[in-house]
Amino acid sequence: MNILLVLGKLGWHCCFDKCSSQNRGSLLPPIQMPTALTFNSLASTPSLECESEQTHNTERRNSSGTLLSPEVEAGGGETDGFYLLKKDSQRRTTLSKVLANDGAKICDVWMQKLRDKYHGETVLTEKHLKRLMDCLKSYLIEQSMGVVESTITQLRLELDFDAQAINQLQFAIYLFQESVIEVLRLHPIKPHWMFALDNLVRQCVQAAVTVLTPELVEHIANHSSPSTVNSTKSSSGKMSETYDVQVLHLKSETGRVKQEFIDSLREYQLMVRQLAEEFRQQTEALKQICSSNRQREVVEEDTLLNNWLEGLGIHPSARKILVGEGYTLDEVLYQIDKEELRQAGLRGATVFRIWRAIENYRKGVVVLCNGVTTGETGTV
Fold first, then answer.
1. By the 8 A CB rule, do 184 and 78 touch?
2. 286-320 pLDDT, tens per residue?
3. Most Cβ neighbours (<10 Å): which of 122, 146, 247, 278?
4. Cβ distance 166 to 225 under 8 Å?
């Protein structure tokens, strides 16, 4: 009798535990993956911590009960791989919608950063940045380098392969990541999603840099050491990224300094030309002042010299210049030379006629001046 009573109690407890287990199982909500992700639901995106807590509750907490980082590698089954691919697709779709909806705001922030860097003197326009953002958005979804290559090639052609413009384009690609993240922070996005979106933007930037400066990517690849440890890979990636940014920054600064040097050289040449022109004008003005001062000097004009010049057919203005210098006829015939005639202010044919008459006189050739004949030793 006692044995039957004990067996009855055991059976009742087993039934009660089974029913309780079934009731508890019926109260657990089913886990559902988001089928469609919209831009407005970005803030309410299911947290990786919550999902991991439901599936790996005992593995996702440390001794203090605090949740670990969301990026914990799970098993290598097909279900886990499909889950990661789906999450990556969702993030790419989310980021592409952000670029589409907030594209104007991103371009404004992007352009302002570029203008601040180059003090407002930018070759690139908002139209160039918009086209570059559209190609990176296409690469984000399609993951094809074709659209990136074609867009950057067109931008190079439009910029005439100018060194300064290419340097600005390189630095603009670097600033794209900062601009997108700055706009993303305006939305209530969870930290682990922000980290994932930042990685996607960095991939777009690296793709554009690969097309624009392939020699830079090759140099970085040649100097990077492979490693099988995750921490070493992460450290190497950060060092490569830092080096990439530094090289882009240095190339941009070099182009800016080079352009400033060229502009300074042009300004210097223009200044030299202006100074030369001012010096020439001042010299001409000084000559005119000196000439007017000489003309204002009171000199005794030699009538015989004036008559002799008139007999040679010299113009009155030229006769006035030579007579105004105070020369006498004897000084002209016996002592003056051709260079002194030029220094007196005579030019061209006037100097030639006077000097020919002087040479003929000195050679003893008879010269006729106003009907007055001079012999070899005679005077006018």
1. no
2. 887 776 655 555 567 788 988 998 888 898 888 88
3. 122
4. no
